[in-house]
Structure to design on (105 residues):
């Protein structure tokens, strides 16, 4: 069973790498759960504000977590590229949440 390792450890303890991976996975799962609950609220009430909130939460927390983990691991993206894409997603998520609060969705 030969393959490429998803993550390797350089200059640090493997337990720290595992703890970081578990933390990232936990943050992703919680963000997806919150976004899904918001989307379910949208489906029940048909209130567009809840849809914008779900989108904002996903873009603010779930997408950057995936980008910061998968871009360097699978695509070999540079740190700059990863940071720009993750930060862009966070800004878009905050914008969607602000639109929910202050706009007229």
């Amino acid at each position: 069973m030969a393959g490429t390792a998803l993550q390797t450890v350089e200059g640090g303890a493997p337990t720290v790498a595992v703890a970081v991976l578990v933390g990232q996975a936990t943050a992703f799962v919680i963000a997806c759960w919150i976004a899904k609950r918001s989307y379910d609220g949208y489906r029940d009430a048909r209130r567009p504000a809840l849809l914008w909130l779900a989108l904002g939460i996903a873009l603010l927390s779930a997408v950057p977590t995936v980008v910061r983990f998968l871009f360097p691991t699978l695509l070999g993206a540079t740190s700059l590229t990863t940071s720009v894409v993750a930060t862009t997603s966070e800004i878009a998520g905050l914008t969607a949440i602000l639109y929910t609060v202050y706009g007229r969705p």
Summary: The helical segments are 14-45, 48-75, 79-102. The chain has three helices and no strands.
